């Protein structure tokens, strides 16, 4: 008689406990660090068996003893042709077309076309990126709607389209004979996936202008990675501009605005994610720089990296069961489908515009265009999404972009000076 009433009285408490446990599971599932380790475990399930297979083929000296229909595939993936270029700068990019006096109008048209293509691609990409990660879909007067949470699916969408575009380009145009072992692309691919994931996740905790300035400050870790990975040396003006960039970013981050919207508050998680993005992205650029010692074009690099990116992301999504859930979200919200597809199109087209601009006008012109794009991106984000910037924050932004333009100017002067050096004198290698 006593136990039965006690059991009835405890039922609401047990139900509440179950609701609390479910809520805790959902909160842990949404926590970025938990998702990071889950994604990393998914990548490890592909990387570890692949590493063991590569070691097995190398120990067996498969290059000399292997036979059969699988031999060309294994040779290409594990060994490659091992043909490297003696001059990295000559092989990393196609020869740049020098403008002539008779085609000045055509060169101006090409420059406008490249600048417009880069600005349109990446400004649209930035606006959509912030829309997808910070706003809800399906909101009505009675329903608050739901946010899309899986950043890895967006990375997969971007990579699958970039892989398709690069593959078609390589198939339709003449490319250098490929010599790099395919597995070496996996290092750049893995760091590229993680940097993109951190970039998307960071928008949940920091404003888009903060993210853009953090990207500008990646010059510093790129230099550090260059010393560690490629053993590069740098000149005094490179250290000076890097210090100015860090000062400008610090001024922006330390600035505070009254009545700032909650979505623009910089949190510790956002800082950690931005640091992760910068570190992974710095490794990606330096590893790709080392891979260019093999004879390959930038589009071949794009294809090789995205092959592994698609493999890693789709494998991890399938293991987590997140691929079907993201597809269901896409079918529930057609607006999200349009945004995700347009996001991928802008990313793929932007990469092609990068290659074409550098090929036609060189890295200095490309850097100026992209620096202006970052400034326009901050302005556009503030206008569309209502981010506020204080006077101190504005001065920090100005210091960052002044340092970036100073860096471009100093680098162009150094290149002109290096051309006048006598034979045998080589300039210091730069990022």
From TrEMBL:
| GO cellular component terms listed in the entry, alphabetical order | endoplasmic reticulum membrane; Golgi membrane
Name the Pfam families on file: UAA (PF08449)
Q: Where are the transmembrane segments?
A: 33-57, 236-255, 261-280, 301-324, 336-356, 363-386, 392-410
Asked if the Swiss-Prot or TrEMBL record annotates the protein with the keyword Lyase, the reply is no
Q: Which domain of life is it from?
A: Eukaryota
Q: By its UniProt entry, which SUPFAM superfamilies does this protein fall under? A: Multidrug resistance efflux transporter EmrE (SSF103481)
User: Which UniProt keywords are present, listed alphabetically?
Assistant: Membrane, Signal, Transmembrane, Transmembrane helix, Transport
Compartments where found: Membrane
Q: Which family does it belong to?
A: Belongs to the nucleotide-sugar transporter family. SLC35B subfamily.
Identify this protein by name.
Adenosine 3'-phospho 5'-phosphosulfate transporter 1
Q: Which organism is it from?
A: Turnix velox (Little buttonquail)
Q: Taxonomic lineage per UniProt?
A: Eukaryota, Metazoa, Chordata, Craniata, Vertebrata
């Amino acid at each position: 008689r006593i136990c039965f009433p006690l059991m009835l009285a405890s039922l609401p408490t047990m139900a509440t406990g179950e609701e609390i446990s479910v809520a805790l599971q959902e909160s842990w599932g949404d926590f970025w660090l938990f998702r990071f380790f889950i994604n990393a475990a998914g990548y490890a399930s592909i990387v570890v068996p692949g590493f063991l297979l590569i070691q097995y083929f190398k120990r067996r000296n498969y290059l000399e003893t292997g036979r059969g229909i699988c031999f060309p595939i294994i040779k290409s993936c594990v060994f490659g042709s091992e043909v490297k270029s003696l001059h990295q700068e000559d092989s990393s990019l196609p020869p740049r077309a020098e403008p002539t006096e008779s085609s000045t109008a055509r060169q101006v048209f090409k420059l406008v076309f490249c600048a417009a293509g880069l600005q349109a691609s990446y400004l649209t990409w930035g606006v959509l990126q912030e829309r997808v990660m910070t706003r809800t879909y399906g909101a009505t007067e009675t329903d608050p709607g739901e946010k899309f949470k899986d950043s890895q699916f967006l990375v997969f969408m971007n990579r699958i389209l970039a892989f398709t575009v690069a593959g078609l380009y390589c198939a339709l145009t003449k490319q250098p004979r490929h010599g790099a072992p395919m597995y070496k692309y996996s290092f750049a691919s893995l760091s590229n996936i993680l940097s993109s994931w951190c970039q998307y996740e960071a928008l949940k905790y920091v404003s888009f202008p903060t993210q853009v300035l953090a990207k500008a400050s990646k010059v510093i870790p790129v230099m550090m990675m260059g010393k560690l990975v490629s053993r590069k040396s740098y000149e005094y003006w490179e250290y000076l501009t890097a210090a100015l960039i860090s000062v400008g970013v610090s001024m922006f981050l330390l600035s505070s605005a009254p009545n700032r919207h909650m979505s623009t508050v910089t949190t510790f998680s956002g800082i950690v994610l931005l640091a992760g993005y910068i570190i992974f992205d710095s490794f990606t650029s330096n590893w790709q720089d080392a891979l260019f010692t093999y004879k390959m074009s930038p589009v071949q690099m794009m294809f090789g990296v995205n092959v592994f990116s698609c493999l890693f992301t789709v494998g991890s999504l399938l293991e987590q069961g997140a691929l079907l859930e993201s597809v269901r979200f896409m079918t529930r919200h057609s607006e999200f489908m349009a945004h995700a597809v347009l996001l991928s199109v802008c990313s793929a087209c932007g990469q092609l515009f990068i290659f074409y601009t550098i090929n036609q006008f060189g890295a200095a012109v490309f850097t100026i265009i992209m620096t202006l794009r970052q400034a326009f991106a901050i302005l556009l984000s503030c206008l569309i999404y209502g981010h506020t910037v204080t006077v101190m924050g504005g001065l920090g932004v100005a210091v960052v972009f002044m340092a970036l333009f100073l860096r471009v100017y100093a680098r162009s002067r150094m290149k002109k000076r290096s051309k006048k050096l006598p034979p045998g004198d080589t300039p210091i290698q730069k990022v």
